[in-house]
Amino acid sequence: MGIGRNEDLHVNADYTVDVLVVGAGAAGLTAAVVAGIHRQSVLIVEKDAVFGGSTAYSGGWLWVPLSPAARRAKVSDSTDDARDYIRERAGEYFRPQLVDAFLATGPVMVDFLEREAGLNFEVGTSFPDYYSDVAGASQGGRSIVASPFNARRLGMELSRLRPPLRELTVAGVMVGTGRAVYHFYNARRSIRSATFVVRSLIRSSLENALFGRSVQLTNGNALVGALAEAAFRHNAVLWTQTRVEALIIKGGSVRGAVVWHQGRRHQVIASRGVLLATGGFSHSRELREALFGSQYPQEPVSPIASSVTGDGMELARQSGAAICREMSNPAAWVPVSIVPRDHGESGVFPHFVDRAKPGIIAVSDDGARFTNEADSYHQFVQAMLLRGGPANAHAWLVGDHTAIRRYGLGAARPSPFLLTRFVKSGYLRVAPSVRDLARAIGVNEDGLAATVDEFGQWARRGADPLFRRGESAYNRYQGDPTVGPNPCLAPLSKPPFYAVELFPGDLGTFLGICTDADARVLSESGQTLSGLYAAGNDMASIFGGDYPGAGITLGPAMTFAYRAIMHMLQRRPPHSPHGLADADSDL
Ligand SMILES: Cc1cc2nc3c(=O)[nH]c(=O)nc-3n(C[C@H](O)[C@H](O)[C@H](O)COP(=O)(O)OP(=O)(O)OC[C@H]3O[C@@H](n4cnc5c(N)ncnc54)[C@H](O)[C@@H]3O)c2cc1C
After folding, report:
1. Residue 381 CB contacts under 8 Å (≥ 6 apart), including other chains
2. What separation in Å is there between the alpha carbon of 398 and the centre of ligand 1?
3. Is the beta carbon of 178 within 6 A of some atom in ligand 1?
4. pLDDT for 236-258, tens place per residue?
5. How far is CA 134 from CA 84, 137, 139, 373, 473, in A?
């Protein structure tokens, strides 16, 4: 039986719960925590053998303006500024009711998780919004991240927690984004960073020997670990390797779902409601073809968890839900490289940081730069797509020896980690001169030589007249503060020279199920489908295809999961401490 609806089924429940949550990522686990704390019986069904979804792979950043962590750090901000910024960026796709609900409830949701569930968040006070020059943008303080979490608190459940993405770890330590990546970059230049790295590696080796994995979790793994621990503490039940096959609909209301669990089909009745939180449709080629439009890549190349295949969208669509397609971009983009693993397998490395570092540039086949490499990953891929079209969009990230030993390039780590494995596998291309490198990677030789020469002349003066790299606060944040006069610029002068091939990948889908401000699923005619809710990447992004800052999927995912449960319980979410009236709840 495929995914579908089950209208005529004779409902003979095997199980009855208050809340049924489909998918155990940030959205699903947040809903389980909130419902559990409100003494509701909760069943989470998760298709994979592990819980955590793509959230467990993620940087774990949440974009929540005016969060409690920002207040503690005395960050200066206002809801009006945040709203202006979102409106400015979303343009014609601005959706005021959803945005206002998000701004009002985001801080309340974080406060609830900290006070009632025992989670802790830290604020990135110097982490600017991605369009830091736009009116209303913050120069730091809207992105927060879960504090490190000791996974031993999960007890036996640790074995079911999805490990971090292999390409973003060193000896089990997550170094893709955040504090760890800063220290790994600086290990050869700062005693504090060297101590951090050595300590992390020793601790991780010991933990690997004792527990089979690193247990001092950071980033998205810490967020998932902390949410799951709170959910279990409040009696939520998690069935892994359990797939929802159909929704049970009676008299126009969603009453529960048919799930495949332990070799048998069960009917689960949910008296309060069903929340779809299956993470969007990054790995569904069929849905990408149907919904993306021909100017975007249809072939999934994504570091998103492979179990994210659009099941929530299918369930909702077959129940009469509308899909929101009016957006500037159908997905969150990130440039990726393909990293060979053992036994002919490969992994996908997301390039968040290296593009902005001094001595590294991106070029297309003509050897010319085509964009500001230090802009956000979402902008960078849009520039790749403009340059090459969806079928031929690729680029080369090129760096000299100084840069690659200092910052690494993609999955190849900075000194003292060796490059040999990456050179041998062909992931890293290396050559003694810029012209030799151009020939090796099939890029126009004169073009690349001229680009490197011209870039170097301007870099020495700290300027990039072509793309103004290093001028915005966000660019500078991604650069290297020890390099001057521009932290994003240095000539590529020291041989050998290296290159890694980039492809347009995605970090999750933006198109999704249309909902109201309480995450209730809407039909084509705009009516709510009683009993059915959607959050996380199953719910259409509230930013209209834009990617305004770090954490713009997890912040709303958890906020609307919170609102969904409050609606199921017929409770109005408490007012934001900033006095923004709750936008659009009909309670
Ligand atoms: C490397 C990386 C870094 C990122 N960093 C950030 C960041 O710092 N901040 C940010 O906001 N975003 C980040 N993202 C994006 C973010 O991870 C996702 O947007 C987010 O995790 C989506 O959360 P979710 O709860 O919707 O889905 P997920 O966390 O993906 O969870 C969905 C779950 O549903 C399960 N499922 C699927 N189908 C079924 C079914 N039929 N029945 C039962 N279960 C099912 C899946 O197996 C999965 O476990 C990053 C992504 C990656 C890959």
Report:
1. 333, 334, 335, 393, 504, 505
2. 31
3. no
4. 999 999 999 999 999 989 999 99
5. 9, 6, 11, 19, 11
